[in-house]
């Protein structure tokens, strides 16, 4: 019985890892004059803990792994 | 027919070119007080034309400002009721085939419009000095070329003025009060009519 429970737990953990999403969003933020905007706060609405700021050239890179528990 | 201007005001006729965008037209006083909303439509498509002066004939004789918005694009124009116009109210022209090609204002790398059902998540961009933007994303792996953030209104930020964190207060008669995060206060005076002629930069 104990082995079955351990097996079920392992399968659940592996399934969870396989659903995890790799996030890789990047780009450059510019204003209407085509100039870069720094310190733009960028985040995902469904995963607000995943966020970043654009740098002095307006570039941003939002890179992380979202686990099912975060979604 | 392709238009170059999203909002045009010629021969006292206001024309709005929308491509699945919300549009609104308001009349305000020169000191910025709202008077009335003339038009308010969601997800509009095509060209809408109307005469704003037709709505102010019953108001005290003065110069007013008509403030038009198509999506995130704002523009203001002077109108007056000193000389009676006799224009009809309502949308005087509508052409669904006359729309702007989105490539004029939006880079190709940016998603145009996606429905919520297709969106996996939403990328939110926030800055104190620009309009926030929400971009629905259908994938968590996207390399954008550029993403535009628009100004709050009809002004652009002065050359060399790069406030990183600021709080903008407006609604005053002839000045804008800006308070930065480190308690530095700026007061920008301007002619209330000049911004309509593109003088305020």
Description:
The complex is a heterodimer of chains A (71) and B (201). In chain A, β2 (41-44) and β3 form a beta hairpin. Chain A has one helix at residues 2-19, and strands spanning 21-30, 41-44, 47-53, 59-66. In chain A, strands 1-4 form a two-stranded antiparallel ribbon. With 71 residues, chain A is α+β, with helices and mostly antiparallel strands. Chain B is mostly beta strands. Chain B has no helices and 13 strands. Chain B has strands at residues 7-10, 13-29, 34-50, 63-70, 73-80, 93-95, 121-127, 130-137, 141-143, 147-148, 166-169, 175-180, 185-189. In chain B, strands 1, 2, 3, 4, 5 and 6 form a 6-stranded antiparallel beta sheet that branches. A 3-stranded antiparallel beta sheet of chain B has the order 11-12-13, with no helix packed on it. In chain B, strands 7-8 form a two-stranded antiparallel sheet. Chain B is elongated and about 60 Å long. The interface between A and B is medium-sized, with 26 and 28 residues. β2 of chain A pairs antiparallel with β7 of chain B.
List the helices and strands and how they pair.
The complex is a heterodimer of chains A (71) and B (201).
Chain A: H1 2-19, E1 21-30, E2 41-44, E3 47-53, E4 59-66
Chain B: E1 7-10, E2 13-29, E3 34-50, E4 63-70, E5 73-80, E6 93-95, E7 121-127, E8 130-137, E9 141-143, E10 147-148, E11 166-169, E12 175-180, E13 185-189
């Amino acid at each position: 019985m104990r082995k079955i429970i351990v097996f079920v737990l392992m399968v659940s953990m592996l399934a969870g890892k396989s659903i995890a999403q790799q996030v890789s969003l990047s780009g450059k933020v510019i204003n209407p004059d085509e100039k870069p905007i720094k310190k733009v706060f960028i985040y995902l609405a469904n995963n607000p803990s995943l966020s970043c700021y654009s740098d002095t050239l307006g570039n941003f890179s939002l890179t992380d792994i979202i686990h099912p528990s975060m979604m | 027919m392709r238009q170059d201007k999203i909002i045009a005001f010629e021969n006292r006729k206001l024309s709005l070119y929308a491509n699945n965008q919300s549009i609104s037209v308001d009349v305000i006083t020169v000191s910025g007080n709202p008077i009335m909303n003339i038009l308010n439509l969601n997800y509009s498509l095509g060209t809408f034309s109307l005469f704003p002066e037709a709505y102010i004939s019953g108001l005290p004789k003065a110069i007013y400002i008509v403030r038009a918005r198509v999506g995130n694009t704002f523009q203001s124009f002077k109108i007056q009721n000193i000389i009676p116009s006799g224009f009809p109210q309502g949308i005087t022209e509508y052409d669904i085939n006359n729309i702007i090609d989105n490539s004029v204002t939006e880079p190709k790398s940016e998603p145009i419009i996606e429905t919520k059902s297709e969106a996996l998540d939403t990328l939110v961009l926030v800055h104190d000095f620009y309009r926030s933007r929400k971009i629905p994303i259908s994938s968590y792996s996207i390399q954008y070329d550029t993403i535009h953030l628009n100004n709050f209104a009809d002004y652009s930020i002065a050359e060399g003025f790069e406030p990183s964190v600021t709080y903008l207060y407006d609604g005053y008669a002839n000045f804008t009060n800006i308070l930065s995060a480190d308690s530095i206060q700026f007061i920008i005076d301007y002619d209330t009519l000049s911004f309509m002629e593109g003088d305020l930069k």
